[in-house]
Structures are given as C-alpha cells and as structure tokens.
Prior knowledge:
Elements: H1 7-22, H2 28-35, H3 38-46, H4 51-67
Helix pairs in contact: 1-2, 1-4
Amino acid sequence: MSEAISYEEWKAKLANALDVQFNWKPGSGLLYVADEAEEVWRDAYDHGLSPDEMAYQEFAGMLADEGDPT
C-alpha cells in the first residue's frame, strides 16, 4: 500500500469499498467484515493489498461461486 494506515483503518476502508463494490446499503460492509474470517483480512493487509483490491477480489470470488453449479 502506498500510505501506511493501521489495520483497523484498513478494515474500515475495506467495509466501505465492499458497500460500493456490491452496491450494498451503507454499513453492510461493516457487518460483512466483522462476520468473515479475520485471518483473511489480516493476510491481505500484511501482503499490501489495498482495501479496494481486496473488495474486488471478494466480488470476483462471489461471482465465481455463483457460477459454480455444485
């Protein structure tokens, strides 16, 4: 990431990015981030993914899951 932000700030930005990416009601991203596996978010943060990049990966992953007939 180009600017150093705390992990908690990163998660808040991720929540907002998820609201935008999925066209969710404001605040839904906060619930999603709180409910999902903490280690996934921490790993993404530690590896330098931006909140926007992580939100895009979540969106792409959900689209792939929806296309899976199993």
